[in-house]
Amino acid sequence: MKFAQKEIVLQEVPGEVSICFSITGCPLKCKGCHSPYLWKENNGELLTTDIYKNILEQYKGFATCVLFMGGEWFPKDLEEFLKIAKTFNYKTCLYTGYNAIPDSILQQLTWLKTGPWNPSLGGLSNPNTNQKFIEVATGKKLNHLFIAS
Question: How far is Cα 15 from Cα 121, in angstroms, rounded to an integer?
Fold first, then answer.
């Protein structure tokens, strides 16, 4: 699988400093998507195990979570990268436009954001969104963490 960018993000997983990998080849192509460049599978750089481990090592002690924006369309690869992150003592998160993912991936996650982008419903900061941010171990929906009070 390929990634178009790697960023350090602070808002996508509340309370965590996350290494965020934006994975290319998204088959959903949601209307109003903010990242249509991620639709093309050939965009980006191949995420090899060596590159990935070097990045995780580089941010050890600073970042606390590894976040994948997509990648569930490469289930075996994603599962392996999540397992590696856990061996480095990172928490793990996946942002997916699907409403459900395979159990093999779910078992490797600390958090999961589900639901396709719907412009009329907005994202996690909208109380009316169709999207859910879930703590996997408890099944607890944590959308309230994104909504300003």
Answer: 25
Q: What is the pLDDT of residues 26-84, one digit of tens each?
A: 998 887 788 888 988 889 999 999 999 999 999 999 999 999 999 999 999 999 999 99
From 29, 9, 7, select the one nearest 17 (Cα to Cα). 9
What Cα–Cα distance (Å) separates residue 46 from each residue in 1, 2, 6, 77, 109?
Answer: 6, 4, 12, 12, 22
pLDDT of residue 54: 98
Check if the beta carbon of residue 113 is closer than 8 Å to that of residue 93.
Answer: yes
**Full set of structural domains in the chain with CATH:** 2-146 (3.20.20.70)
Tokens linked to 17? 């400093």
Pairing type for strands 140-141 and 65-69 reads: unpaired
Q: How far apart are CA 33 and CA 39, in angstroms?
A: 10
Residues 127 and 121 sit within 8 Å (Cβ to Cβ): no
Query: ∠ CA(58), CA(23), CA(126), 5° rounding?
Result: 100
Cα(127)–Cα(146) distance, integer angstroms: 9
Euclidean distance between CA atoms 82 and 77, whole angstroms: 9
Query: Do 143 and 132 contact (CB within 8 A), yes or no?
Result: yes
pTM over 0.70: yes
